[in-house]
Amino acid sequence: MPSTVIVGAQWGDEGKGKIVDLLAQHSDVVCRYQGGPNAGHTIVVGGETYKIRALPSGIVRGKPCVIGNGCVVDPEVLIGELDEFEHRGHSTEEVYVSGNAHLIMPWHVAIDGASERRLGKLAIGTTKRGIGPCYADKAMRLGIRVQDILDPKILRQKIEVALAEKNLWLERVYETEPFDLETVASQYESYAQRLRPYVADTSLYVDTALADGKVVLFEGAQATLLDLDHGTYPFVTSSNPVASNAATGVGIGPNRIDRVIGVAKAYVTRVGEGPFPTEMEEPWQSRVREIGHEYGTVTGRERRCGWLDLVALRYAVRVNGIGQLALTKLDVLSSFAELPVCTRYRLRDGSESPDFPAHQSDFHAAQPVFETLPGWQEPLDACAAMDDLPDAARRYVEFVERELGVEVTLVGTGADRERILSPLSLEAVARP
Ligand code: GDP
Ligand code: IMO
Ligand code: MG
Question: Most CB contacts within 10 A, which of 7, 120, 291, 328?
Answer without folding.
Answer: 7
